[in-house]
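Inputs:
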Amino acid sequence: MILLWLILLPFAAGVAAWIAGRRSPMAARWIALVTMVAGFLITVWLWSANRQSGFRIWFDDLNWSWLPAWGIHFHLAMDGLSVLLLALLFFLGLVSVLVSWTEIQYQVGFFHLNLLWIVAGIAGVFLAVDLFLFYFAWELMLIPMYFLIAIWGHENRRYAAVKFFIFTQLSGLLMLIAILSLYFAHHTATGVYTFEYGELLGTPLAPATEMWIMLGFFTAFAVKLPVVPLHTWLPDAHTEAPTAGSVILAGLLLKTGAYGMIRFVVPLFPDAAHRFAPVAMWLGVVGILYGAFLAFSQNDLKRLVACTSVSHLGFVLLGIFAWNSLALEGAVVTMIAHGISTGALFVIVGALQERIHTRDMGQMGGLWAAVPRLSGAALFFALASLGLPGLGDFVGEFLVLLGTYAVSVPMAAWGTIGVLAATFYALRMVQGAFFGPDTRGWRIADLAPREGFTMAVMIGVLLWLGLYPRPVLEMFRPSMTNVQTYASRRLP
Amino acid sequence: MLAVAIHRRHVVTAILSYTGLGVAFASLWTAQAVTPRQVTPLLTVDGYALFYMGLILAASMAFVLLAYGYFENSGGHRDELYILMLVATLGSLVLVASSHLVSLFLGLELLSVSLYGMISYLHTRPLPLEAGLKYLVLAAASAAFLLFGMALVYFVTGAMDFAGIAAGLPAAGTDEHWLLWPGMALIVTGFGFKLALVPFHLWTPDVYEGAPAPVTAFVATVSKGAMFAALLRFFYASGAHAYGPVFVVFDVIAIASMFAGNILALMQTNVKRILAYSSIAHLGYLLVAFQAAGVLGAQAVTFYLVAYFVTIMGAFGVVTVLSHDGHEADSLEDYRGLFWRRPALGAIFTGMLLSLAGIPLTAGFIGKFYVVAAGASSALWALIVILAVSSAIGLYYYLRVLVVMYDRPAEAVAQPALVPAGGVALGVLAVLLVWLGVFPGPLLAAIRQVAAGLG
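Outputs:
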């Protein structure tokens, strides 16, 4: 039942926050805060309780019959990968509540309802083992996120929110068609109607059918990841969202795309994925380089940070489709490190925007003298973003490149150039905003204790991930082995 | 009716109609014990008919609740509306139970003629009058087409009951009875008009906009639902569904409706017109399930209709409840900041719009899922991909209404009180929407039984 709590708690707390928020905005904030902390503690407890077994077998918690005639079950289960991503979820959820403490003043209760419901939806995505439930949660993530952007976002929020919604919904519908095709193909082969992940693994499929269905799934996850050329919603959505929204978007929503690829695309359709891998990997490389190029050319600080996500997640795509242990581990570590480093960068940009009311780098410069702590944090996370050894992103990218090298040397070479490209945009960001002479005479407040605390914790996590990633690696290594086993069941 | 003749009192009429409908609804359960039964060669009362009768009666009851508040302040005589509505409901009940072309026509005309009156009921205002006139001319013409088509089919097959038509259809490939094709085309035209399918849809936006909001709700739900149930029974039972080019014709109509409905709505700023175009698109989705046929086809159609009824009643219910004192709440401006001014209404309307868009937690999602599943099981890949694409197009205008609803209002305005009857109806519909979206199990089981006879 405990996994159900991870979904129900944010859901119920959201409603409570809305009701409480009508009386007192502070009450809504505290409810949200307490819920995120509770969720995080539960996840950490599950992590440590399963440290020995390392989730070699799934923690199969909940399997209720929902629509038995269609073979649909409310089935929640957890393995090493999901527990990590859930920890990231509640951690970044906590960060986003802290970040919105002063930024959001309008309809605070409803804001926290949406925030908590996004968290509930994402938890559902990471825990669902029944494809119908997965699709249900996938769609459910969208609506509160849409509201978050459309109501509390910045100038161009309506356009960004609608674009985000339509992109994701269309690709989601294609995934629905793919899910149903798999469902019926499974029935044709075995006579059983089921949406169960475990039972759908290894469904015999004709090669062409397998490719089409895989592409249906891939498209949905590719929009979310995002994969160039389906990435155009990302800069707008990330830029126009309020800070909490950007943190959740970059830190978590993008990871659901990667999670979907690891969990569903490759294991369910190994042959098709194998044939498609070169295309996907080159798309990953293109994403790395193009994302870096995009980021470098931005003048809007937040948009710059948003475009770096395209670049970093190109590494993730590369690692996933290289499909060997090193590359997969690298992909997962990159997912987590990116969530934290980019989330932190968004927090910094948001804090800056709250203070100077602009995101235009042309109007910044020389901020270091005025806000040393903020600038120092920005420098740290910029270095993390470009892959400085000793920090989490480096571990991830290095493992990805190592794994890719075993599969294809040219791709690894281009990917490494991408690491160099990251240096350009990261240093440009720091140079443009924080370094240089203080020509405007900034008079702004430095990090408040709440903000400073958030930064310190995130710095700590990135350092831990970068210097001692072993606990994390050990946690999801068994599930990666499992996933690889699923995928090799039908390979000749 | 008699009560009106004795003494006019709006409340009494409304209560009498509601009670009558309620008693009829309750009697469905006793009827179930003796079904299936052929009542004269014209009507077959089986599980399918009873289910749809229940649906129609429930929709009519919702109509009474919504119409009471709306017409309370509209001035003039109000009681005839209920009489007209009861006759229209009767017509619909005949439609869903019909297994003979004559009863089909009879039910259709009962329904249509009553609707002429209902649509133009507020005859002192120009818009309803214009809408009613448009509907009259086009409905009468399409009924004539339908009749001619029926005559041609009778000429070729020698029978007018559905089973007899199935037996009398010439074997495929023979060319002797070429009159069947125009006959079928004319019948499809007649059905297409009533269901507002492309290219017979041109009346829909104007009539939806002009008619009083609760009447629009009635037209959108009861009239279309009953007609679709009759369509299903006719085409499946008579074997005309898979007969020659009829299948392709429906394919084309489905695709055209899905695209036209969604694309044409993109430019609209009138909420009623948006909902009108979206109904056209939804009937397109329904046709996809209809095309699927087989076991899942009839089930998917029935579930989708239930979800559609709840959603459209709810959406137009919100429009009704917001309209007052002669001001119809149909422009987008009336909805600006609705969620902040009236959170409950805003939340309900949000739920209805999300259900129309097919978002989980709502009945509309399960309906859409069912339709795509039916399409996938019959390998109608082109149709369901088009369904997906046009759904995504449709999102754009649903989101536009949502955006306006969540817009920060300029200043606080005093909100007039709402009539309780309408509020109760909306509350029940909202609960149903979410209930069917999360626990559709019992309804699905009932539908499986109901649709077993068809397809």
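Remarks. The CA atoms of residues 57 and 79 of chain A lie 7 Å apart. The first helix of chain A runs from residue 2 to 23.
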